[in-house]
Amino acid sequence: MDFRFLAPALALLLAACSADPPDPAATSVAAPADAPADAREPDEYEADDVLLRDHDVAHVVVKEAFVTPSTPEENIDSPASWLQDGKRMLVASAKATDQLVVYDGDTGQRLRTVGGTGTALGQLQRPNGVATIDDRYLFVVERDNRRVQMFQLPDFTPLLAFGADALQQPYGLWVQPKGEGYEVLVSDAYMAGEDAQGEDIVPPLAQLDRRFRRYEVAQAGGQWTARDAGAFGDTGAAGAIRVPESLFGDAANNRLLVAEEDVPTGTLLREYDLQGRYLGRDVGKGQYVAQAEGIALMRCADGSGWWVASDQFADRTVFHLFDRRSLAHVGSFAGEVTGLTDGVWLDERGDERFPQGVFYASHLDLGVAAFDWREIAAALELRECRR
User: Fold this and answer.
1) Do the Cβ atoms of 100 and 110 come closer than 8 Å?
2) Tens digits of residue pLDDT in 76-92
3) φ, ψ for residue 207 (rounded to 5)?
4) How many Cα atoms within 13 Å fall on the side-chain side of residue 52?
5) E strand map for 312-374
6) Could you check whether the bond before residue 154 is cis, i.e. omega within 30 degrees of 0?
7) In degrees rounded to 5, what are phi and psi of residue 216?
8) CA atoms within 13 A on the CB side of 181
9) Of 319, 298, 301, which Cα lies nearest the Cα of 309?
10) What pTM was computed for the model?
11) 254-290: per-residue pLDDT in tens?
């Protein structure tokens, strides 16, 4: 989240193309010769960074299956995946270069980039949240174009842009099927200006009723269109979202989890229903320490499963798991090196590389880390999840 954004030019922590992450105990490496003056070594942190090493947070360690090549100049934020002719593909938003980066979803190999700076269809400005659906479409939130753009996969053909007439500072999104089209929920982190120190001022509670906006996307006559279906947001002290970004829904349980990133208020997940009503329950109180960020859901065939959500420590992110139905905390894990995670994505489908699915998490603004679900389940002693 840009409210506590670290400089994107962090020095290289991982071997760029290795299928295995490096030894997490390795000492710091020198910054590249062409690195900006404010670049930091991998083990150097700012005074106000929240570090896992300074907090006693119960977790197990799960080794990353891979980490993509490090690209400090891009500021990688959020990942999503799709299947292309049976092959898993991965895309991530690159905020600093106004592009999307495409990787091999099973190896992390970098394949190409899409987009570029501009306002035309197919161009981007500060892309943030991304989501794929039906292995056919990609939705991308653009903060600085104040819109959402829809692409057709696998060629990234731009189909539609919407929301610029209402969105002010969009960040995250969740997409679900609706009729012959889709419903897109978008978080909007509009603020009430800045204070004397240049910090964002959260609007009064009464003005937080537009924290999320709903769009209905449909196709007619060969053309895609989007309809603004209204906004929602709780305005009570308990349910309001002061600093929004990530959200994810569970249609089977009429549930929408949204991340409250405002640390002074208490960062955690709030439970809404899909109609936009706060249900009076918060998730992760007692677990979250740093900042609530990405949210994903592992769904099992019998209706059970687990929510997986990131706690954004600067050195190593902790991922908390909550029971899909009861929302009870069932355990937490961290990678060997993955840190400062913004967006996450969980692909439940199996292939030869990841037979039980794969969990992706952005890493240090440098790239994307992948975790084999089998390793997560074994480490946390989770029951079998039939798809």
Assistant:
1) no
2) 999 999 999 999 999 99
3) -100, 10
4) 28
5) 318-323, 329-334, 344-347, 358-363, 367-372
6) yes
7) -110, 120
8) 16
9) 319
10) 0.89
11) 999 999 999 999 999 999 999 999 999 999 999 999 9
